[in-house]
Structure formats: C-alpha cells, structure tokens
Write a structure and sequence with these properties.
346 residues; alpha/beta; 7-stranded mixed β-sheet; 18 strands
Length: 346
C-alpha cells in the first residue's frame, strides 16, 4: 500500500509499505477513505516531537471503513464507516476511568497513531483498542463532516470544556487557525456573553468571518486586542483565555488578557520553551490549564454534527489524492492559496 513516511527531521517520503495486519484481538484494520494533515504532523517533520519515531507512517486525522476486526472487538464490524481517534487508550487504567485518555498507561497510550505507531496517511491503518478508538459515523453525516472529529474538533471541544465557560463570561481565543476555529465553534455552544476570536493573519480573520462562527473575529494587526477586551469587561480582562495559536508572544498575551482569578487554557503545541514570568503575574491568581487533548467525546461530537450544531466541513479548502500528498504538505506548511485544512482522498 502507499503510505507517507517520516524518514527523519525535515524529510518525508511517499513509499510502498505492507498492508497492516491484526496484532492483538482488540485491533481493527481500517481502509482509510479520507485523511488530513495536521499542524502536529509539521511539528514531527521539524523534529519538535521527541516521541515521534523515524520510519513511522504519519497521520492521525482520518475516517474510513472497517475491513477486519480482532475477536475481542464488539462495537464495530467490517463494513462500518468510522471516525478514528487521535488517541490510543485501553479504557481500564486509572487515567482512562477518569476520562483522561491522553494519559492512558498503556505503552502506546495517548497520541500514538502517526507518532509512535503507524498512522493513517496511508491506504490502511491498524487501530489498537478499536472499541475505544473507533466511532461509527451516522448515515446522515458525510466523511468530510466527520473528518476532524477524532482530533482537532475533539481538541476544540476539550478546550472549551477545560475553560469552564459560563453565560456571563468574556472568552478570548487566540489563533484563528483550524484548532482555534474548532474551539470557537465549541465555545459558542456555551453561549458566553462575549466570544472573541483573534489572529494577526488577515486572511485567516476573513476566513473565520465567512465561516459564520458565532464570535467577534478580530484582526489584531488592525485593532488592539487588549483595549477591546478591557472595553468589553469594564477594565477587568477576559474571564477565560484559550491559547490556540502557539505563536511568538501568544503565551504572554494570553495571561496578560486574563482578569485576576481568570482561567488560561494552553492548547497550542509549542516548538520552543515558554517562560513563566511569575513576578509579573504575582497577585493575578491565575489558573493555568494545559496539555494534550483528552479525545473522549467523539460520540457526543457526532451527535452534535447530526443535530446541525457543529459542522467543520467548511474548514476544508483543498483536496488532494494520496499520490499528491507531498505537494499538499508544501501548500499546508507554507499557507499558500488560502489553505485552512486539506482533505486527502484515498
């Protein structure tokens, strides 16, 4: 089968690889029908993910059709159209039982697909703990609508939940890229008093506005975000700040925007260490929350899509065949031609 392989830092290759086979009775083999490229894949390419293994097949955003299941798989069967979870989790350990599936104690627990075990930018993928990692897609939902359920939409849903949003809150989301847009969609479900989505990239700001998200989308290159937030909050600052950009200075901006005793959620993946200037923060009594997504709510997300309350298909701006995936990576990494998310047809 054809598969995109992480060879070493800064080098990817489309190769022929053996079709995966069942290794454990809890495995499933899925024929991938649609995949995508995530910014995390770029972090792997750049050498910024220490756990990533050279020679691994990339890809953790995909949907497909179940081809084969192990004898201990009961929730899906061959022929089922499914979403694939970014995380591998046993469902039985201390962390899984608390819904903290990114911290699963299994040796391949957490983000493994496309990082530590072969992923889904390929014709087929082996999914461990398939009863946990696969969710059947309702007939009314297209592959494109379901494509991001297992990763960036889960991240947005997790980020909004992490922020403990109430209807009285002013919520600021930094970054109008794919993760920020998904976060804004999910934050809007909580109906906060003010929801602000901010970016310095005019093209992404315009994209967010056209997407029709229930948020005030702000171009920070033209409007001072701190002034706007203070005007909205009577000078207090934002109740909740979600940092989904991971850019130069966005960490500092996030805590500066937050009001005293506010919550700052860091869901971006940084390529460099961030400095915590505690003397400057003293007295703000901020709560910081951070880490990788706990993608434990895919079933709920599919339900929200089916109800028409979430729809991320509009994030897809370009479609490529698997044979063209290296060109798709170039376009995605260089942010060319108005790209937001790419669908790779397999």
């Amino acid at each position: 089968m054809k598969a995109l392989v992480y060879k070493k830092n800064h080098r990817l290759a489309l190769e022929e690889r053996p079709r995966p086979s069942l290794q454990l009775p809890t495995d499933a083999i899925v024929r991938v029908t649609l995949a995508s490229i995530c910014s995390s894949d770029l972090h792997i390419k750049h050498g910024a993910v220490p756990k990533a293994i050279p020679g691994i097949v990339l890809g953790h955003e995909m949907v497909g059709i179940v081809e084969e299941t192990g004898e201990q798989v009961h929730n899906v069967k061959p022929g089922d159209r499914v979403t694939i979870n970014v995380e591998t989790f046993c469902g039985e350990c201390f962390y899984c039982k608390q819904g903290l599936v990114n911290n699963c104690a299994d040796e391949n627990g957490g983000w493994a697909l496309g990082c530590r075990i072969d992923g889904g930018q390929a014709e087929y993928v082996r999914v461990p703990y398939a009863d946990n990692g696969l969710n059947r897609i309702p007939q009314s939902i297209t592959d494109r609508q379901a494509l991001f359920v297992g990763d960036i939409l889960s991240t947005g849903y997790w980020a909004a939940d992490l922020a403990e949003i109430t209807k009285n809150d002013t919520v600021v989301i930094l970054g109008a890229g794919p993760t920020g847009l998904c976060t804004a969609m999910c934050a809007s479900l909580y109906e906060p008093k003010h929801l602000i989505l901010a970016d310095i990239d005019e093209e992404r700001v315009q994209f967010g506005r056209k997407l029709g998200i229930s948020a005030q989308v702000v171009d920070c290159s033209r409007q001072d975000l701190k002034t706007l937030v203070m005007e909205k909050t009577g000078g207090r600052g934002a109740d909740r700040v979600i940092e989904a950009a991971g850019g130069d200075g966005t960490f500092d901006l996030a805590w500066q925007l937050a009001r005293p005793s506010g919550i700052v959620c860091l869901v971006a993946m940084y390529e460099e260490d961030q400095r915590l200037p505690l003397p400057q923060m003293y007295g703000k009594n901020l709560t910081f929350k951070t880490g990788g997504v706990h993608a434990a709510h895919c079933e709920r997300l599919l339900q929200l899509i089916e109800e028409g309350r979430l729809d991320t298909a509009g994030l897809i701006t370009h479609t490529f065949a698997l044979e063209e995936i290296l060109s798709a990576y170039d376009l995605f990494e260089n942010r060319e031609a108005g790209v937001m998310k790419i669908a790779v047809e397999i």
